[in-house]
């Protein structure tokens, strides 16, 4: 797939929706490119989107262990797994509610050595998920484009924690379908996802159909 | 494909399921919070069967075109059934199920015993059928030392010394607190033929059939190789009570168990 061309079209058709970001999880032997400096997964995505940063991060480079864990790079820290961290942070009134939420957070199956990031137009790999940071009106168009051929509905499956990692990448990779998510405290605070933005993760295999549908929308709707 | 959707409400679960099935996924296993009419309707819309099952993890729902694929291994000669089932399981995704039918309960027992070796779990079992579910990993056995003994006997009544050794060593192992299983194969199956062991007597020991009855009484399991039995016209009706026909799958499973010390006679 010509990701450079697709990326250019997506940016134009989504009216400056920003740079889509390609994310892939790799085993040891598949790794290439430069190691990124220590940051969070959501920051790696923003760096790729806003500054064109490319590279990979092993568990050691992931400052957010919860994010790294759902991407299969390390084990879930005990205080995340049992809900106590989110309970302590004030997200939930009870430990049980926190634990129930954490148990439901999507995570990839299997273990991986690193997560790889690139602006979609620079991606020299097949992405497991392509992450878009969009305004709601742009996310609406993207959703409509996904449903253009297949019909039905699209789900936004999120809980407000572990958003760009679990919802926009792990869930997309495991299910093979898009997911819309509202960001989380970490991605808004550290990665600078703005109040008027949300995130959508899409399987790379759906991009061509989405571009085609967006072109038709433009013809019909202007 | 196997997904945990316990944290997703049933309406969203139905939307996710619909979109996955539209991608052409043929076998989907979901863990849901609750039985879902919405997800069931989506499965029906895609002409697939929805089969729910309560488990410790929650409600596990299998969605696949014909529910469960069926294969009938009736009439297949050992090791045919385990090869057919093993080949089929190796191409299946974790969570998928298969129903195996056979008119022989021995074949069903054989396949059930060896299921973990084939990365499968027994979901349902009767004398004539077995439902297996492919799992992610092989059974992990905790190695606690060789506390069991597998005696493999392949010479039979034609070699009295080896025939006696089979049961004398078994008695010795039992007295030392070991679990003992005897597997008779090739000429060894002659020991299981009614009247076969009765013809063997050493002056210093009880008659071989009496020794054999004694170890059976003490709890030793005796398996008789299905293929060797067929070669020699041995059937359930002309076999000593307490012996059981078993296939290659049982033999390989026993040999693969690290807790068994294996002795050959």
UniProtKB/TrEMBL annotation, chain A:
Record Pfam families: DUF169
Domain of life: Archaea
Designated name of the protein: Conserved protein
TrEMBL record, chain B:
Transmembrane segments: none
InterPro entries xref list: DsrEFH-like, Sulphur_relay_DsrE/F-like, TusA-like, TusA-like_sf
Domain of life: Archaea
Protein name: Sulfur reduction protein DsrE
Native source organism of the sequence: Methanothermobacter thermautotrophicus (Methanobacterium thermoformicicum)
């Amino acid at each position: 797939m010509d990701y450079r061309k697709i990326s250019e079209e997506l940016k134009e058709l989504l009216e400056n929706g920003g740079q889509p970001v390609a994310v892939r999880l790799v085993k040891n032997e598949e790794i290439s490119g430069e190691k990124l400096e220590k940051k969070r997964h959501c920051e790696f995505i923003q760096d790729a989107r806003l500054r064109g940063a490319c590279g990979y991060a092993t568990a050691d480079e992931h400052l957010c262990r919860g994010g790294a864990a759902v991407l299969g790079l390390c084990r879930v820290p005990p205080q995340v797994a049992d809900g106590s961290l989110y309970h302590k942070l004030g997200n939930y009134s009870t430990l049980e509610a926190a634990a129930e939420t954490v148990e439901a957070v999507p995570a990839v199956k299997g273990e991986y050595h690193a997560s790889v990031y690139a602006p979609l137009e620079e991606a020299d790999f097949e992405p497991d998920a392509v992450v878009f940071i969009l305004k709601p009106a742009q996310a609406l168009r993207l959703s409509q484009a996904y449903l253009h051929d297949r019909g039905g509905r699209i789900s936004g499956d999120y809980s407000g924690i572990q958003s760009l990692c679990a919802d926009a990448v792990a869930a997309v990779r495991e299910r093979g379908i898009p997911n819309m998510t509202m960001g989380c405290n970490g991605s808004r605070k550290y990665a600078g996802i703005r109040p008027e933005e949300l995130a959508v993760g899409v399987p790379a295999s759906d991009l061509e159909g989405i571009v085609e549908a967006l072109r038709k929308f433009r013809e019909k709707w202007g | 494909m196997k997904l945990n959707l316990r944290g997703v409400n049933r309406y969203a679960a139905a939307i996710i399921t619909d979109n996955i099935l539209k991608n052409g996924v043929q076998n989907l296993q979901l863990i849901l919070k609750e039985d879902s009419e919405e997800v069931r309707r989506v499965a029906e819309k895609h002409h697939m069967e929805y089969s729910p099952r309560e488990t410790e993890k929650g409600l596990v729902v299998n969605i696949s075109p014909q529910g469960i694929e069926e294969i009938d291994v009736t009439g297949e000669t050992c090791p045919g059934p385990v090869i057919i089932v093993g080949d089929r399981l190796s191409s299946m995704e974790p969570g998928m199920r298969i129903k195996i039918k056979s008119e022989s309960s021995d074949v069903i027992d054989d396949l059930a015993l060896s299921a973990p070796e084939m990365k499968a779990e027994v979901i349902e079992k009767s004398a004539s059928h077995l439902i297996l579910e492919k799992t992610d990993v092989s059974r992990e056995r905790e190695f606690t030392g060789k506390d069991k003994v597998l005696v493999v006997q392949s010479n039979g009544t034609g070699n009295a010394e080896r025939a006696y050794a089979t049961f004398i060593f078994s008695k010795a192992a039992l007295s030392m607190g070991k679990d003992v299983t005897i597997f008779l194969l090739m000429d060894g199956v002659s020991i299981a033929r009614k009247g076969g062991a009765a013809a063997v007597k050493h002056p210093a020991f009880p008659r071989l059939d009496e020794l054999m009855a004694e170890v059976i009484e003490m709890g030793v399991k005796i398996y008789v190789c299905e293929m060797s039995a067929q070669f020699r016209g041995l059937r359930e009706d002309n076999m000593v009570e307490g012996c059981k026909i078993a296939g290659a799958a049982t033999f390989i499973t026993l040999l693969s168990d690290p807790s068994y010390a294996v002795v050959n006679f």
